[in-house]
Write a structure and sequence with these properties.
CATH architecture of the largest domain in chain A: Orthogonal Bundle
CATH superfamily of chain B: MetI-like
Largest interface: A-B, 85 and 82 residues
CATH topology of the largest domain in chain A: MetI-like fold
Strand content of chain A: under 5%
CATH topology of chain B: MetI-like fold
Order of helices and strands of chain B: HHHHHHHHHHHHH
Shape of chain B: globular
Order of helices and strands of chain A: HHHHHHHHHHH
Strand content of chain B: under 5%
CATH architecture of chain B: Orthogonal Bundle
Shape of chain A: globular
Number of helices of chain A: 11
Number of domains of chain B: 1
Number of domains of chain A: 2
Structural class of chain A: mainly alpha
CATH class of the largest domain in chain A: Mainly Alpha
CATH class of chain B: Mainly Alpha
Number of strands of chain B: 0
Distance between the termini of chain A: 37 Å
Structural class of chain B: mainly alpha
Distance between the termini of chain B: 25 Å
Largest sheet of chain B: none
Radius of gyration of chain A: 23 Å
Number of helices of chain B: 13
Number of strands of chain A: 0
Oligomer: heterodimer
CATH superfamily of the largest domain in chain A: MetI-like
Helix content of chain A: over 70%
């Protein structure tokens, strides 16, 4: 049984990783062939770094993702705390609306925001581009933050907050010392989720970006529409390396913290 | 904690402007003509595309079932590993998700192509070349590849909470593995199953990238149809809004059905 499950896990991981490794291998291919490896080169990487469109859209993507995820974490954390204190009916109504961008297909969210922005653009000084992108990203990020935090309240004793105040905490202290630590894991996972979704989003950005501001996924999309270019492979490889490094570093930090905590306890 | 209600005010304002109003605009566009008068023509025009709707539902359904079948054993195996191994394994499952899904889909474009690696390898053993890309099978494969982690994660997170002693108790009381699976594990993981199904089905039924990149021109899905009305050649936001509305209705029906199977009245995801 144990052997069987190991083989199964290995097969699934192969399915997930083989396509990515093929991309990586062919990023070093001399010719544009996608099936025959003819020789090693770093040419595609050089071309990638000289491609202004890619570099500028990468920077754009990072700025938008940071802005949107920070804003949505603040907005969402406050919202979750507020919603938690509400009565059943208003709570249910708000949670249902909050769920909409998640339940709704991305394309519908994208299209609906596009209609709103077109309406504003016609009447106010609004251009499709950076601002519309950030607004759109915050809009689809906040629900993830809220949904990550809400379950934490269920695990928390609702009287703790009052107890803290009875014992002399100010409302702000009680918030900081009682509520925040309880929901912090949810806040962090919500933030990470929001950041990842922002970095990764194509569909909603596609409908809400103008010609002035492009994100990396949109640039990638237009590259795949044109002729096949191994620059995409090179880009994928770099992204993959960055992701692996980030995750390894994160793991090391977490392990160290866990060890430290263990020491104190011991 | 009632006095903390006001904290949600900024979000409520945001929610109304950027979630509620845009959706109302979709509904408004779906029921109006260009000059703003009421019509149901847009909605009735959607009927012309029934074949595209059927294809989208069908392909998304197949992809969802495959995802569930692949992910269920995996999630269970992961949830029974030692704690520190679980973290690493979860990381490995999540990692491809961090690559943009356009790149992941592009990877399959290069694998499945007529001169791609798979056909090359098949050629070596004397098979092919097979037509792999621009088929509905390729679209399903793309959906499974892209959305599999969405199925694994919710399943894993409910299974991880199933205490080992519950399973041991079941087998101590004479349950066979099969009985334990269907009487204990499946009922306890039902919330994960339903949210996994929605998390795969919804993006799968509405995708327009996977069908465009792997399905060629002949496998149009609902998403392609909507995109064409807003950014494509056949610009018609009123029809596009109508199609979006029908798509939302389909999804609503499916979610309602899923909710029937969910044991509690929690929020869906």
């Amino acid at each position: 049984m144990k052997k069987l499950s190991r083989i199964y896990v290995a097969l699934i991981l192969m399915f997930l990783y083989v396509p990515i490794f093929v991309l990586i291998v062919f990023s070093f291919n001399e010719t544009k062939s996608r099936s025959v490896f003819s020789g090693f080169t770093l040419d595609w990487y050089a071309r990638l770094f000289n491609n202004d469109i890619i570099i500028s859209s990468l920077i754009n993507t990072l700025i938008i993702a940071v802005l949107a995820s920070v804003a949505s974490t603040i907005l969402g954390t406050l919202a979750a705390i507020g919603i938690n204190g509400m009565r059943k009916v208003p709570k249910a109504v708000i949670m249902n609306v909050t769920n909409m961008p998640i339940i709704n297909p991305e394309i519908v969210t994208g299209v609906s925001l596009m209609l709103l922005f077109v309406f504003f653009a016609a009447r106010m000084h609004l251009e499709f581009g950076f601002v519309t992108l950030v607004i759109a990203h915050i809009t689809f990020d906040v629900p993830y933050v809220i949904l990550n935090i809400m379950p934490k309240f269920k695990q928390m004793d609702p009287h703790l907050y009052e107890a803290a105040q009875d014992l002399g905490c100010s409302p702000f202290q009680a918030f900081k010392r009682v509520i925040l630590p309880e929901i912090m894991p949810g806040v962090i996972s919500g933030f990470l989720m929001a950041f990842t979704y922002s970095l990764d989003d194509f569909v909603i950005s596609y409908f809400t970006s103008g010609s002035t501001s492009q994100t990396l996924p949109i640039t990638i999309y237009s590259m795949t529409r044109r002729k096949i270019s191994p620059e995409i492979n090179a880009l994928s490889t770099l992204i993959f390396v960055v992701v692996v490094v980030v995750l390894i570093v994160k793991n090391i930090i977490e392990n160290r913290q866990a060890k430290k905590r263990g020491l104190y306890r011991g | 904690m009632k006095q903390l209600k006001v904290l949600s005010l900024p979000y409520l304002v945001w929610m109304v402007i950027f979630i509620v109003v845009p959706l109302l605009m979709v509904a408004f566009f779906a029921f109006t003509t260009e000059d703003g008068s009421f019509t149901i023509e847009n909605i009735s025009d959607v009927g012309q595309y029934a074949n595209i709707f059927v294809r989208s539902i069908w392909l998304a359904l197949i992809a969802t079932v495959i995802c569930l079948l692949l992910a269920y054993p995996l999630a269970f195996i992961l949830s029974r590993m030692e704690k520190h191994k679980q973290g690493t394994m979860l990381l490995l499952v999540m990692l491809p998700m961090w690559m943009n899904f356009l790149l992941r889909t592009y990877a399959w474009m290069t694998l499945l192509g007529n001169n791609g690696i798979i056909n090359n390898l098949l050629g070596m053993i004397g098979i092919g070349p097979l037509k792999l890309i621009n088929t509905s099978g390729a679209v399903v494969l793309g959906m499974v590849y892209n959305y599999l982690p969405f199925m694994i994660l919710p399943l894993y997170s409910v299974m991880q909470k199933i205490d080992k002693s519950v399973l041991e108790a079941a087998s101590d009381l004479g349950c066979s593995f099969r009985n334990t699976l269907f009487r204990v594990i499946v009922p306890l993981s039902l919330p994960g199953i339903t949210s996994g199904i929605t998390m795969v089905f919804v993006p799968a039924i509405s995708t327009f990238i996977i069908s465009r990149m792997l399905g060629g021109g002949s496998n149009l899905l609902i998403g392609d149809l909507i995109e064409m009305q807003f950014l494509g050649n056949s610009y018609n936001p009123h029809l596009g809004a109508a199609i979006s509305l029908v798509l939302m209705a389909i999804i609503l029906v499916i979610m309602t059905v899923m909710n029937q199977f969910s044991p509690d009245d929690q929020v869906l995801i």
